[in-house]
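To: structure desk
From: M.T.
Subject: fold request, one chain
Message: Could you run this one when you get a chance? Sequence is below, nothing fancy, just the single chain.
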Amino acid sequence: MNKLYWIVCDDKETNVFEGRYQGRTRGEALKFLKQSIGRKTLNGLVFTITEIPVPLIREIVAEILASEDVSNVVPLTPSQPEASPGRYDAFADATEPEPTPAEATQITNETSKPAKKVGNPGHGDDHWSKVRTHWLECRSVKQTAEHFGLSPNSIKTRIRREGWNK
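Reply: Done. Structure tokens follow.
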């Protein structure tokens, strides 16, 4: 699919080339520019190759600037409330600074998490001691897993990590 490229090329303060090129890629437009000005490289030149015609951009910008009503202009960055200045060094007051909104939501998320499930690796040592006792009696990973509702791989990992075979 061919695209319409607008090409502008300047050498210091003089305009060397300004025009259009219709082609598939920006690379083709670059080759066209080199052929048009008769140079192998574009070193020392300032050029731009855009898909949107520059005159169209100029018209749009001029129209926006000419209109008195700027309510339809959207700011590039949304306004954010300024953070209160605080001192966070050895000479700061002993009182703790107020948490930022991000820290406050993190604190509430940590407190609202449900209790950790028993049987997860690293949690509930009394549960794992029962699993170990049962495994030592029957020596079957599959039976132990079914009895305690665990994954056989979890039990195998515990056996290997904690050396139940020894």
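Reply (cont.): The first strand starts at residue 3 and ends at 11. Let me know if you need anything else for the meeting.
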